[in-house]
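User: Predict the full complex structure for these chains.
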Amino acid sequence: MKKLYVVGIGPGSQERMTGEAVEALRKSEILVGYTLYADLVRDFFPDKVFVTTGMRAETERCRRALELSAEDKVVSVLCSGDAGVYGMAGLIYELSSDFPEVEIQVVAGVTAALSGGAILGAPLGHDFAVISLSDLLTPWDKIEKRLRLASEADLAICLYNPGSHHRRDYLQRAVDLLLETKDGTTVCGYVRNIAREGESACVLTLRELRDVQADMLMTVFIGNSQTVRIAGHMVTPRGYPLDEKKKLF
Amino acid sequence: MKKLYVVGIGPGSQERMTGEAVEALRKSEILVGYTLYADLVRDFFPDKVFVTTGMRAETERCRRALELSAEDKVVSVLCSGDAGVYGMAGLIYELSSDFPEVEIQVVAGVTAALSGGAILGAPLGHDFAVISLSDLLTPWDKIEKRLRLASEADLAICLYNPGSHHRRDYLQRAVDLLLETKDGTTVCGYVRNIAREGESACVLTLRELRDVQADMLMTVFIGNSQTVRIAGHMVTPRGYPLDEKKKLF
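Assistant: Here is the predicted structure of the two-chain assembly.
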């Protein structure tokens, strides 16, 4: 019986992977992943066998990884960003009851909320919510409810999957919802192609964000009521102004 | 003028740092941090000068780092977990207007929501909120409001700073609030001392969580309505049961 690693590879460049993730891939004979993510690590691990599948074949891909592991191969499942956050770790566990002999090890990675956040400054310096705008596996009314309540809670919000060819106006719909509770001048930001060719970032207002065309390789950040713009960066302070008495520094 | 790195060092062991973080520390002459975090990396970088301050001296610490950088030293500010999430990146930017010559680079790291999540399984596999129970810089009523709304939104929730000597019953108060909207059987989990000596994890129900004594080195996970327990792990699936028609795999 061999270990099955579910590995968060971070945003895409090897230096943004943890040592633990690099080590798991090194130890593996077979790397299983979505074609695009496999391409991100192929150059660093040219001697590995890659098993790749298309974007929506997650179940097939994870089952294959479990099968290979049960056949005594050392296998890593590649996840963009973190292994858990919208990653494959959950699905691997869900399918694992058919493969009781496989030992699973999840290896955390830097998810886009963090890697994109580092580029923008510190957009998630206080309590925050991470919400995906993809309604492939989640009813849209549930997504709307989450956006409304997260906004009402004054959480900073990080949006994953803000748009695609088939969901061209989803970011706009989300911003319209947020504008019901948030000020149009709320500081926001977005990053495209984190750690990849064509990386770019922008800090702007919520009102301006409404007119941005989102795509799949974009991560969006909505500030809370305290978020400020400092020298082109997006910064959410770690707290709220408190009574002088409570100020300890 | 030298770069000032604000570095997320992850949960504490070198193999959980990204290559970029290791490189930033290697390039630095001076590492500035809270005593406990400095101790986590001291063994890996014995030749560095360490400037350490106590727990609540964040502003003093960050100002010192900016001053040293302005004096042409290469400096890294050490942050446990990520540099942005409850980290020093925001404070460094807030203080940076007095040091316009310093170039700041934020280096993301694996925050406890991810490193702890990997140990438990996949507690944050779908939309989630990260909320700190520390009321040092945030009024408690704001924390309560966030817990209520995040729970109503059926977000998975990760709690940071769930308790300390001075806040012994905060986790219990938070759980009591969550029990107003969530079922007592909701799958939860917690991890203590992530990647450090004495690391331990537990999966339990929300009702059971109420009786757990929290401390500063603990991260708590509250499931959403779909979260399940699989072979001792905590797993939040990536979606909701949908109409057959929408099922693509």
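Chain A has a mean pLDDT of 93.
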